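User: quick one - fold this with manganese (II) ion bound?
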Amino acid sequence: MSLKTIIKALKRYDRFLITSHHNIETDALGSELALANWLKANKKKFFIVNQDFVPLAYRFLPGIKSVFNLPKIKSDLKFDAVIILDCSNFDRIGTVKGQIFEDKPTINIDHHRSNENFGNFNWVKPTASSTAEMIYEIYKASNVKISKKIALLLYTGIMTDTGSFRFENTTSFTHKVISELLKFKIPIKDIYHKIYESFAASEMRLFCNVIKDFKIDKSKRIAWLELELGLLDEQKSKLDLNDAIFNILRSIETVEVAIIFRESKKKDSVRVNFRSQGKVNVGKLAYSFGGGGHRAASGCVIKGNLRQVTSRVFKRINKLLK
Ligand SMILES: [Mn+2]
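Assistant: Sure. C-alpha coordinates for the protein plus manganese (II) ion:
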Protein backbone atom coordinates (compact mmCIF):
# COMPACT_ATOMS: atom_id res chain seq x y z
CA MET A 1 0.00 0.00 0.00
CA SER A 2 1.25 3.47 -0.76
CA LEU A 3 1.76 6.51 1.43
CA LYS A 4 -1.24 8.18 -0.23
CA THR A 5 -3.56 5.28 0.54
CA ILE A 6 -2.45 5.19 4.15
CA ILE A 7 -3.13 8.92 4.55
CA LYS A 8 -6.60 8.33 3.09
CA ALA A 9 -7.17 5.52 5.58
CA LEU A 10 -6.09 7.79 8.45
CA LYS A 11 -8.50 10.46 7.26
CA ARG A 12 -11.37 8.00 6.99
CA TYR A 13 -11.85 7.40 10.73
CA ASP A 14 -12.33 9.72 13.69
CA ARG A 15 -11.19 8.03 16.86
CA PHE A 16 -8.02 5.99 17.05
CA LEU A 17 -6.32 3.67 19.43
CA ILE A 18 -2.58 4.01 18.79
CA THR A 19 -0.25 1.29 20.02
CA SER A 20 3.15 -0.32 19.48
CA HIS A 21 5.30 -3.21 20.67
CA HIS A 22 6.10 -4.43 24.18
CA ASN A 23 9.47 -3.31 25.57
CA ILE A 24 8.54 0.10 24.26
CA GLU A 25 11.45 2.22 22.98
CA THR A 26 12.01 5.59 21.36
CA ASP A 27 11.21 4.83 17.70
CA ALA A 28 7.83 3.49 18.82
CA LEU A 29 7.18 6.35 21.28
CA GLY A 30 8.41 9.12 18.97
CA SER A 31 6.27 7.72 16.16
CA GLU A 32 3.17 7.34 18.35
CA LEU A 33 3.42 10.89 19.68
CA ALA A 34 4.27 12.47 16.32
CA LEU A 35 1.40 10.66 14.59
CA ALA A 36 -0.96 11.61 17.43
CA ASN A 37 -0.07 15.26 16.77
CA TRP A 38 -0.75 14.76 13.08
CA LEU A 39 -4.17 13.31 13.95
CA LYS A 40 -4.82 16.29 16.21
CA ALA A 41 -3.98 18.64 13.32
CA ASN A 42 -6.58 16.72 11.30
CA LYS A 43 -9.16 17.16 14.09
CA LYS A 44 -9.15 13.48 15.03
CA LYS A 45 -9.36 11.94 18.48
CA PHE A 46 -6.85 9.41 19.74
CA PHE A 47 -5.36 7.74 22.74
CA ILE A 48 -2.06 5.96 23.03
CA VAL A 49 -1.73 2.76 24.98
CA ASN A 50 1.10 0.22 25.11
CA GLN A 51 1.59 -2.94 27.09
CA ASP A 52 4.57 -1.60 29.03
CA PHE A 53 5.29 1.53 31.03
CA VAL A 54 7.50 4.23 29.55
CA PRO A 55 11.09 3.76 30.81
CA LEU A 56 12.36 6.70 32.89
CA ALA A 57 15.02 7.72 30.38
CA TYR A 58 12.37 8.41 27.71
CA ARG A 59 10.04 10.55 29.78
CA PHE A 60 11.53 13.78 28.44
CA LEU A 61 9.70 13.29 25.14
CA PRO A 62 7.12 16.08 24.65
CA GLY A 63 3.57 14.85 25.24
CA ILE A 64 4.70 11.67 27.01
CA LYS A 65 1.97 12.08 29.65
CA SER A 66 -0.58 11.11 27.01
CA VAL A 67 1.06 7.69 26.63
CA PHE A 68 -0.54 5.07 28.88
CA ASN A 69 0.30 1.52 29.70
CA LEU A 70 -2.29 -1.17 30.06
CA PRO A 71 -2.99 -1.78 33.72
CA LYS A 72 -3.56 1.96 34.10
CA ILE A 73 -6.31 2.27 31.54
CA LYS A 74 -10.03 1.61 31.75
CA SER A 75 -11.41 -1.07 29.50
CA ASP A 76 -14.32 0.98 28.11
CA LEU A 77 -12.26 2.74 25.49
CA LYS A 78 -14.13 4.03 22.46
CA PHE A 79 -12.44 4.06 19.07
CA ASP A 80 -13.24 3.17 15.49
CA ALA A 81 -9.80 2.22 14.17
CA VAL A 82 -6.48 0.95 15.48
CA ILE A 83 -3.03 2.17 14.45
CA ILE A 84 -0.16 -0.22 15.11
CA LEU A 85 3.31 1.26 14.73
CA ASP A 86 6.77 -0.33 14.45
CA CYS A 87 5.48 -3.92 14.86
CA SER A 88 6.41 -6.71 12.46
CA ASN A 89 3.50 -8.85 13.62
CA PHE A 90 0.26 -8.47 15.56
CA ASP A 91 1.55 -10.40 18.60
CA ARG A 92 4.22 -7.77 19.20
CA ILE A 93 1.60 -5.46 20.79
CA GLY A 94 1.41 -7.95 23.67
CA THR A 95 -1.53 -7.64 26.04
CA VAL A 96 -3.00 -4.65 24.16
CA LYS A 97 -4.42 -7.36 21.90
CA GLY A 98 -7.10 -7.91 24.53
CA GLN A 99 -8.39 -4.34 23.97
CA ILE A 100 -8.85 -4.79 20.24
CA PHE A 101 -11.88 -6.45 18.75
CA GLU A 102 -11.91 -8.05 15.38
CA ASP A 103 -14.42 -5.66 13.90
CA LYS A 104 -12.05 -2.71 14.25
CA PRO A 105 -10.03 -1.84 11.15
CA THR A 106 -6.28 -1.92 11.73
CA ILE A 107 -3.69 0.38 10.17
CA ASN A 108 -0.20 -1.10 10.17
CA ILE A 109 2.75 1.28 9.65
CA ASP A 110 6.20 -0.27 9.94
CA HIS A 111 9.71 -0.52 8.53
CA HIS A 112 10.62 -4.13 9.41
CA ARG A 113 11.29 -6.38 6.43
CA SER A 114 9.67 -9.29 8.26
CA ASN A 115 6.33 -7.44 8.60
CA GLU A 116 3.41 -9.81 8.12
CA ASN A 117 0.99 -7.24 6.65
CA PHE A 118 -1.48 -8.15 9.38
CA GLY A 119 -3.56 -4.97 9.08
CA ASN A 120 -6.55 -3.99 6.95
CA PHE A 121 -4.31 -1.16 5.74
CA ASN A 122 -0.59 -1.85 5.56
CA TRP A 123 2.16 0.61 4.81
CA VAL A 124 5.42 -1.29 5.18
CA LYS A 125 8.66 0.26 3.99
CA PRO A 126 11.77 -1.83 4.69
CA THR A 127 14.07 0.80 3.19
CA ALA A 128 13.03 3.32 5.85
CA SER A 129 15.50 3.62 8.73
CA SER A 130 12.72 3.77 11.28
CA THR A 131 9.00 4.21 11.72
CA ALA A 132 9.68 7.83 12.72
CA GLU A 133 11.16 8.44 9.25
CA MET A 134 7.87 7.16 7.77
CA ILE A 135 5.81 9.46 10.00
CA TYR A 136 7.93 12.33 8.69
CA GLU A 137 6.82 11.32 5.19
CA ILE A 138 3.16 11.41 6.28
CA TYR A 139 3.65 15.01 7.48
CA LYS A 140 5.33 16.04 4.24
CA ALA A 141 2.89 14.33 1.88
CA SER A 142 -0.14 15.82 3.63
CA ASN A 143 1.33 19.30 4.13
CA VAL A 144 0.91 19.29 7.89
CA LYS A 145 3.38 21.67 9.49
CA ILE A 146 6.20 20.16 11.54
CA SER A 147 6.86 22.03 14.79
CA LYS A 148 9.94 21.95 17.00
CA LYS A 149 8.19 19.43 19.24
CA ILE A 150 7.45 17.09 16.31
CA ALA A 151 11.00 17.51 15.02
CA LEU A 152 12.34 16.40 18.40
CA LEU A 153 10.08 13.32 18.47
CA LEU A 154 11.01 12.25 14.95
CA TYR A 155 14.71 12.97 15.43
CA THR A 156 14.80 10.84 18.59
CA GLY A 157 13.14 7.88 16.85
CA ILE A 158 15.48 8.05 13.87
CA MET A 159 18.60 8.58 16.00
CA THR A 160 17.97 5.58 18.23
CA ASP A 161 16.90 3.17 15.47
CA THR A 162 19.98 3.99 13.40
CA GLY A 163 22.36 3.63 16.37
CA SER A 164 23.05 7.36 16.09
CA PHE A 165 23.31 7.17 12.29
CA ARG A 166 25.88 4.39 12.11
CA PHE A 167 23.79 1.28 11.28
CA GLU A 168 23.28 0.15 7.69
CA ASN A 169 19.65 1.30 7.68
CA THR A 170 20.94 4.90 7.61
CA THR A 171 20.42 6.21 4.06
CA SER A 172 20.98 9.47 2.27
CA PHE A 173 17.25 10.05 2.64
CA THR A 174 17.62 9.59 6.41
CA HIS A 175 20.20 12.36 6.44
CA LYS A 176 17.98 14.52 4.26
CA VAL A 177 15.18 14.15 6.80
CA ILE A 178 17.57 14.87 9.68
CA SER A 179 18.91 17.93 7.90
CA GLU A 180 15.34 19.24 7.70
CA LEU A 181 14.62 18.40 11.36
CA LEU A 182 17.79 20.14 12.55
CA LYS A 183 16.46 23.44 11.20
CA PHE A 184 14.29 23.47 14.33
CA LYS A 185 17.38 23.74 16.52
CA ILE A 186 16.51 20.71 18.60
CA PRO A 187 18.94 19.98 21.46
CA ILE A 188 20.66 16.94 19.91
CA LYS A 189 23.44 16.61 22.47
CA ASP A 190 20.93 16.80 25.28
CA ILE A 191 18.70 14.12 23.67
CA TYR A 192 21.65 11.75 23.34
CA HIS A 193 22.71 12.45 26.92
CA LYS A 194 19.23 11.79 28.31
CA ILE A 195 18.95 8.43 26.55
CA TYR A 196 22.47 7.04 26.71
CA GLU A 197 24.37 8.88 29.41
CA SER A 198 22.09 9.08 32.39
CA PHE A 199 22.92 6.02 34.51
CA ALA A 200 23.29 6.22 38.26
CA ALA A 201 26.72 5.24 39.61
CA SER A 202 25.12 2.19 41.26
CA GLU A 203 23.73 1.09 37.89
CA MET A 204 27.15 1.44 36.32
CA ARG A 205 28.57 -0.75 39.12
CA LEU A 206 25.91 -3.37 38.47
CA PHE A 207 26.65 -3.26 34.76
CA CYS A 208 30.37 -3.85 35.39
CA ASN A 209 29.55 -6.82 37.59
CA VAL A 210 27.35 -8.34 34.90
CA ILE A 211 29.52 -7.73 31.84
CA LYS A 212 32.62 -9.39 33.29
CA ASP A 213 30.89 -12.80 32.93
CA PHE A 214 30.47 -12.66 29.16
CA LYS A 215 31.37 -15.78 27.21
CA ILE A 216 32.83 -16.24 23.78
CA ASP A 217 32.96 -19.29 21.51
CA LYS A 218 36.14 -20.89 20.15
CA SER A 219 35.91 -19.08 16.84
CA LYS A 220 35.49 -15.81 18.78
CA ARG A 221 32.60 -14.92 16.50
CA ILE A 222 29.77 -15.35 19.01
CA ALA A 223 29.76 -13.55 22.36
CA TRP A 224 26.96 -14.03 24.85
CA LEU A 225 25.80 -13.43 28.36
CA GLU A 226 23.36 -15.28 30.57
CA LEU A 227 21.44 -12.87 32.77
CA GLU A 228 19.48 -13.46 35.92
CA LEU A 229 16.01 -12.01 36.21
CA GLY A 230 15.39 -9.04 38.47
CA LEU A 231 18.95 -7.74 38.46
CA LEU A 232 17.64 -4.23 38.49
CA ASP A 233 14.26 -2.64 39.00
CA GLU A 234 13.58 -1.61 35.44
CA GLN A 235 10.75 0.70 36.50
CA LYS A 236 13.20 2.81 38.48
CA SER A 237 16.25 2.53 36.28
CA LYS A 238 17.56 4.63 33.42
CA LEU A 239 19.93 1.89 32.42
CA ASP A 240 18.86 -0.16 29.41
CA LEU A 241 20.88 -3.18 30.45
CA ASN A 242 20.49 -5.07 27.16
CA ASP A 243 21.56 -2.08 25.13
CA ALA A 244 24.60 -1.43 27.31
CA ILE A 245 25.67 -5.09 27.18
CA PHE A 246 25.29 -5.29 23.41
CA ASN A 247 27.34 -2.15 22.90
CA ILE A 248 30.24 -3.78 24.73
CA LEU A 249 29.92 -7.30 23.25
CA ARG A 250 29.80 -6.11 19.68
CA SER A 251 32.85 -3.95 20.09
CA ILE A 252 34.97 -7.10 20.32
CA GLU A 253 36.76 -7.11 16.96
CA THR A 254 35.96 -10.67 15.85
CA VAL A 255 32.36 -10.87 17.11
CA GLU A 256 29.67 -11.37 14.45
CA VAL A 257 26.74 -12.15 16.73
CA ALA A 258 26.06 -11.05 20.31
CA ILE A 259 23.36 -12.75 22.36
CA ILE A 260 21.69 -12.20 25.72
CA PHE A 261 19.85 -15.14 27.32
CA ARG A 262 17.45 -14.31 30.13
CA GLU A 263 15.64 -17.09 31.96
CA SER A 264 11.96 -16.56 32.84
CA LYS A 265 10.71 -16.55 36.42
CA LYS A 266 9.28 -20.04 36.09
CA LYS A 267 12.50 -21.24 34.45
CA ASP A 268 10.47 -22.87 31.69
CA SER A 269 11.43 -20.47 28.92
CA VAL A 270 14.26 -18.13 27.97
CA ARG A 271 14.12 -14.67 26.44
CA VAL A 272 16.82 -14.46 23.75
CA ASN A 273 17.99 -11.19 22.18
CA PHE A 274 20.34 -11.02 19.22
CA ARG A 275 22.53 -8.36 17.63
CA SER A 276 24.47 -8.96 14.43
CA GLN A 277 27.27 -7.11 12.70
CA GLY A 278 25.69 -7.95 9.34
CA LYS A 279 26.86 -11.35 8.19
CA VAL A 280 24.19 -13.32 10.01
CA ASN A 281 20.57 -12.26 9.55
CA VAL A 282 19.42 -12.45 13.17
CA GLY A 283 15.93 -11.30 12.15
CA LYS A 284 15.44 -14.57 10.27
CA LEU A 285 17.02 -16.48 13.11
CA ALA A 286 14.64 -15.05 15.74
CA TYR A 287 11.75 -15.52 13.33
CA SER A 288 12.58 -19.22 13.02
CA PHE A 289 12.04 -19.43 16.79
CA GLY A 290 8.72 -17.57 16.58
CA GLY A 291 10.14 -14.13 17.40
CA GLY A 292 10.69 -10.96 15.37
CA GLY A 293 13.00 -8.09 14.53
CA HIS A 294 15.28 -7.24 11.65
CA ARG A 295 18.65 -8.19 10.12
CA ALA A 296 20.76 -6.58 12.81
CA ALA A 297 18.58 -6.75 15.95
CA SER A 298 15.97 -9.27 16.99
CA GLY A 299 14.53 -11.32 19.83
CA CYS A 300 12.40 -14.33 20.69
CA VAL A 301 11.19 -16.43 23.61
CA ILE A 302 12.12 -20.13 23.51
CA LYS A 303 10.62 -22.85 25.68
CA GLY A 304 13.04 -24.90 27.78
CA ASN A 305 15.69 -24.29 30.40
CA LEU A 306 18.82 -22.28 29.85
CA ARG A 307 20.96 -25.27 28.84
CA GLN A 308 18.43 -26.59 26.32
CA VAL A 309 17.79 -23.19 24.80
CA THR A 310 21.44 -22.20 24.42
CA SER A 311 22.22 -25.50 22.71
CA ARG A 312 19.29 -25.09 20.28
CA VAL A 313 20.29 -21.53 19.45
CA PHE A 314 23.96 -22.40 18.96
CA LYS A 315 23.13 -25.28 16.62
CA ARG A 316 21.28 -22.90 14.34
CA ILE A 317 23.82 -20.08 14.49
CA ASN A 318 26.74 -22.37 13.79
CA LYS A 319 25.00 -23.45 10.60
CA LEU A 320 24.51 -19.83 9.58
CA LEU A 321 28.11 -18.88 10.27
CA LYS A 322 29.52 -21.66 8.09
MN1 LIG B 1 11.76 0.89 14.63
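One thing worth noting: The chain is about 35% helix and 20% strand.
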